[in-house]
Structure formats: C-alpha cells, structure tokens
Amino acid sequence: MSLVNQLIAAIFAVLIGLVSGTLYIMSESSRSILQNQLESHAQDSATHLGLYLAPYMADDDSATIETAVNAIFDSGFYQRIIVTNADETVLFEKQTPPEVSSEVPGWFQNMVKITPPSMHRDITYQWRQVGKIYVQSRAGYAYEKLWKGAQDSIILFVSLSIVCLLAISSLVRFLLRPLHRVEDQAVALTEKRYIEQEKLPGTRELKRVVEAMNNMVRQVKGMFEEQARNIEDLRRSAYQDGLTGLANQRATESQLAERLDYRKDFGRGTLFNIHLLNLQSVNQQIGMDKTNTLLKFLANRLEEMARNADQSVLGRITGADFILLTNQTDLDQLQRLIEILDQESRKQLSQLSESEITVPIISIGSCLCDDSSNTKQLLSQARLAADEAESQQELWKQFDLDKQSISQPVGSDWKQHVAQAINQRKIFLQIQSVFSKSPSSMPLQDELLARILDREDKPASAGEFINVVKELGLITEMDKAVIELAVNQSNERATPLTINLSHEAVATPEFHNWLVNKLQSGSFAGKLMFEVDETSVLNHMEEVTKFRKALQKLGISFGVDHFGVHPSGFAYLYGVQPDYVKIDGSLIRDIDENAEDRFFVSSLISVAHSLGIQAYAEHVERETQLTLLTSLEIDGTQGYLHGAPRPLDE
Questions:
Q1: Distance between CA 262 and CA 172 in Å, rounded?
Q2: What pTM does this model have?
C-alpha cells in the first residue's frame, strides 16, 4: 500500500474512533438524561394521580380508582401503576410487559441499558394517610427516542467524516505529490533515465528530500556520461580516423573481414578505392588547413553515398585513400554517383585554391564482390584498378572482370525459386547457440539463421540469395516466414529462439503491427527473442523504441546485434534499453592479441552492465578468446568454438 493510502487509512481509522467515542459519550449522556426524565415523569404522575384519587382512596372506592388509572395508563407511557390503602392493601394494580418497538435493534438495547425506576407517593386526605401510589414509566419510549437520536447523530457524523476524509485525502495527496515524483525519479534511475524535479516543494522536509534526490540524479548521470566519454575517446583513438571521423585502416579492414570473410551475408556488391591525387603537392599548394578541409569534404560526400546504400562499409585507410563497400552493382548508377563526386571535389578544390580545376583530382578503382570473395584480394584488386586509373589519367577504372571469379548475375529461374521458397514458407532454419560462462550449461538462446535451399536441396549461403530477396522486395515477407516457422517450433524447445529482423522490417509500422498481433495470439515469453542490427537501431530510433516497448509488455526479450562499431556511439542505449547486446565480431577477433581491443571490449561490457544490460560476444573461435572474455565478465559467447550452425530440427 502506498504511503498516501496508508495515511488516509490512518486518518480514517482516527475518524472512526472519534465518531465511535462521540456516539458512546452522547448515548451515555442521553441515557442518563432519559433515565432522570423517566424518574421525574413517574414521580410527577404519582403526585398528580394521588391528588385526584385521595378522597376515593380514603373511601376505598376501587371502581373510581380503576377508572382513573386506566385513563392515564392507556396513554402508553407507563409500565406499572399500583394503588394501595393505608394498610398497603392493593386497591388496584395495572401493568404491561416491558416491550420495546421493533424499530430499535436488539444490539442497541443490549448496549444501552435503561431501567426505569419505580417511584411512589404517600397520599394523605384531611390530615391523615390514606395510602400510596407506585408509578413506573415504560422504557420503550426512552429507547425509541434514544435510538432516533443515535441514528441522526450517526448520519451526521458519517457525512461529516466522509467530507473531512475527502478533504484530508486531497490535501495529503497534494502535500505528498513531490514524494510521488521522487518515486518516479528512483524508478527512472534504475532504468538509467535521469529526471530532475524543477519545482521544489514548500514543505521543508520534502524540499530537502527532493534536493537530495536531484543531486544524486545529477551525480549518477555525470558519472555515466564521463564513462561514456572516456570510452568514446578510446574508440575514436583506436578505431576512428582523427581528421575525417571515418573508420581508420584497422577498423575498416576488420569490418570488411567481418562481413565478407566471416558472416558472408553481404551478397553481391562493389568495393571502391578512392585515391586523392597528388596529396603532397596539394598540401604544398594550398596549405595543410585547406587540404584537411578538402579531405573532410571528400569524406562527407562518401558518407552520403554510403547512407544511400542499404549496406556499406566506409573508412580511410591511408592519408589519401578511402575504401567504400556498397551493395550497389548497377554500373550506370555508380557512374552517375562517381561523376557527381568528381564534380563536387573539383569544385571544392577550386574554391580552396582560388583557381579553376578542370581535371579529376581523384582516381577511383573498383571491383565486384560476392560471398565467395576474400577481403585482402578485393582490397588489392581495387587498389590496382585505382593505380591503373591514375596512370591512364582516368576518373574510374573497374577491375578486369576476366580476372575475377565473381558469379554472374542470377537468372529469372533462381529468382522464381527464391520467391517460391519464401511464399511457400520453405525456409531452411539453422541455429547457433549463445552459451553462458559455463560451457556445460544450457544455452542462453539459439539464434536463427535463415537459408534458402538450392535446387539440390542444399542450404545456399546468405550472399547467394539476400540480394535477390531484396531485389524482389520480399525481405519483410521473409522475416514473416521465419517468424511463423519459429512460432510453430517455439513450444517444443527448451531454449529461446532468437530472430534477427531486417532493416526493412524495422522501418515498417505495418510489420510491427503484424508482429505484435501475432505474438498476442499466444504466450511466447521465454520462448522467442528478437534482435536488431545496431545500424538499424540508430537509423530508426523512434520505431525501434516503440517496438521494444511493445515486446516488453509481452515479456519478450530484445537485443542489439553487432554492437560497438557504429561511429555514432551507444548513447541510444538510454532510450532503447535492450535486454542484451552482442558485441560485434570485428572487435572480438583479435581480442586475445590486441590490448586496445581488450580494453575497448572491457569498457563496452562495463557500460552494458551499468545499464543492467547483458553483454554477449560474437564469433568466439579460440579458447584464449573465451578465457579472456570470461575474465572480462562477459555474460555469454557465441561462435564456432561452441560448434558450427546446425539445423533447427536436429
């Protein structure tokens, strides 16, 4: 029970006590008054009756006495009247049982005892005593009057108590409203949300409590922000180019290897090597500051190209060279983008040097890639193409396709096969488990890997069909197919199934509504989990936050995949509040050999734990990695060390 309700209950109890005590006192007082009235009434009646009956009592006229007594007894105010002569011989006696009206409850009669006294008067006539008259009033009349008064008092006091209780309740709630906001602050603090009360209460004690809570919120917020800044500084120094803000050579090559060599889910794409010609000469001609401005400008234009692509990896690998991996393969479209880049870069240099530039200042080499490509080989091919473009004084050179083992564009039959597999829900599902610190324990979750079976009923790699699925506009439909299959399998499994959602599904409100309705049709808490790529989270913060809250109401866990590599940092964790994060494999690959990776991953784990978020590591392949991650207090690991992906129905 809340403090406000407890105070109201206590006040109500006090009011009930006051009402009960007041009613008791009033009842006792009224009973005493009525008792005295009954006594006085009986005494007066005996006196008046004696004055009238005195001559008849002297003559022992029983008939007249009886007539007179009956006349007043029938009024109903008397319980007994006795008339005796001087020898105390009863001349006439009239009495009735001590009945009380049925309107007066029995419990009230038992609680309030009224015993009317029997009063008498000695009667004299002509200076001699002629007898006595005994009169006892009826108690029922007193009970009726007392009960009527008690009823009126109870109604009055209850009405006043209710009015007072409502008034006091409103007052207490108003006075203690700052405490309710303090409670909200405390709850928000556990969720790593920092709320301060701007308006301080007037009550001194409450004001001090609110000020203390505000100070604590500011201190905790400052501590986390400082921690986040330190980690962000480390990330920039270790993985980010200091001038352009892009990924540096080490981070770029690591991310390329993650996508192309390990995950192999990029599909067909194009790798560009963009080389700024004669960087040293340009630097001498326009100065270092303007050269840096030119490099930043070029980086910004490349970032725009990367954002326009569905998937991309961008970084600066040397002073004059940039690498861009994009899933765009249409040569005409790429030609237009490159020509725009050339025009804008020449225009920028013209403004900086204050002279007209008529020839390209960049040379671009590119090569096609697919899921069978090797990162080092692709970098080499793109570099050779850029060198060839520079030597031939051309803007762009595509690496000779005859020298590449790139699969040809897929035919309509394969597209039809992929579309049919999705529409008929013929998706082959594999799982890869996440294990806790103890390898012998049950898996924490089984992550689903969706595959399309080829014509020989063998699982095709993601790169073989993912571009086709996107080209056909079926990526969201494929997510639905995976979810439906997972829902059907979830009740039969002891370990929760984790489903990765695509960028397209995350950005579609209709998909969110479909999924929530699907999940509301059953109980899937502890049976299903959902993951979203970190890039998708940052690109669709509002949609992801709403989606996460909807899952939270259903008791379904939500995680962020490939955590820690996006240049925008991880401030989004405040708003999204995922249940877990999976640290990107590019940060785990060399963690047992690279001190910077170790420190950065340790910091990411610390940040996650400070927010109450579980931290898992992807692509763990060696015992040395597992040992080190365990010492860093990782919550779970996933990778080939625990086994290759296996069919869901095994």
A1: 63
A2: 0.65
